Amino acid sequence: MIAIKDLYSGYGDDDILKGVSLNILNNKLTVIAGPNGCGKSTLLKTISGIIKKTSGSIFIDDIDLSNISPLDRAKRIAYLSQNRSVPDIAVKNLVLHGRFPYLSYPRRYRAEDREAVDMALERMGIEGLRDKMVSELSGGERQKVYIAMALAQGSDYLLLDEPTTFLDISHQFQLLDLAKELCSENKSVVMVLHNLESALSIADSFILMDKGRLLFEGSVDDVYSSKLIDKVFNVEIKKESDHWWCKKKL
Ligand SMILES: Nc1ncnc2c1ncn2[C@@H]1O[C@H](COP(=O)(O)OP(=O)(O)OP(=O)(O)O)[C@@H](O)[C@H]1O
User: Fold this and answer.
1) Is residue 40 within 6 Å of ligand 1 at its C-beta?
2) Does residue 212's CB lie within 6 angstroms of at least one atom of ligand 1?
3) What ipTM, to 2 d.p.?
4) What is the pLDDT along the chain (250 residues), one digit of tens a residue?
5) Of 41, 112, 189, 228, which one has the fewest beta carbons inside 10 Å?
6) Do residues 160 and 30 make contact, with C-beta atoms less than 8 angstroms apart?
7) Nearest to residue 63, comparing CAs of 53, 55, 73, 54?
């Protein structure tokens, strides 16, 4: 479990997260939702160590993340950011970057690193792209390559910031299914999602944020009954025979 207590974090002198406390449960799919700019990415960046917290604590399986090295952290937590560069590099080499936490310098890839890459490419259905240059791929193909890189990292916790961006609807569903599958294979997946219908359909645990604070943490049914999503986004959420609808409030 990742246990976050009274977390303050942000950029320069400005704290964006203001006292966030929540738990990311093992082998569950946690979805984080909230309006633009409310701090979802800042939360993931702080957990993964991209930015330093101002105060509060983050424990992973009872270990204080402040006490472990960036490499050890990366072995435990893979993070896919929302904004990604487009490097001039072959797909297979980019996915190998996911293995960096396991290699000392100068990096010599081992058979198990190449196997992890093969597995990740296969899992994302992009074996055919392995020798292509990342810069020559479509937005959706590139997105899958980055997710493969996160998978190749082999961490127990996967933090994915808007992973469905650029994916067509069928690949979005495939990715959500894959996230579920990973949770049944001893992984814990956290995804920032903007599509509320998908988020409600898939989440085991739902986190709702607003203005740098946690508004809700719990089950999909409970967030639905709370009407907090409706309030925050000014929408109407409905559940009809196991199907979630999100409509503009009239
Ligand atoms: N590198 C940065 N330097 C300074 N401020 C930043 C930086 N990145 C984000 N912010 C600010 O932090 C706030 C929260 O941003 P964050 O990206 O965490 O929000 P978000 O909930 O993920 O938003 P979105 O849904 O639009 O992706 C915003 O006001 C943003 O302008």
Assistant:
1) yes
2) no
3) 0.98
4) 999 999 999 999 999 999 999 999 999 999 999 999 999 999 999 999 999 999 999 999 989 999 999 999 999 999 999 877 788 899 999 999 999 888 887 788 899 999 999 999 999 999 999 999 999 998 889 889 999 999 999 999 999 999 998 889 998 998 899 999 999 999 999 999 999 999 999 999 999 999 999 999 999 999 999 999 999 999 999 998 889 999 988 7
5) 112
6) no
7) 73
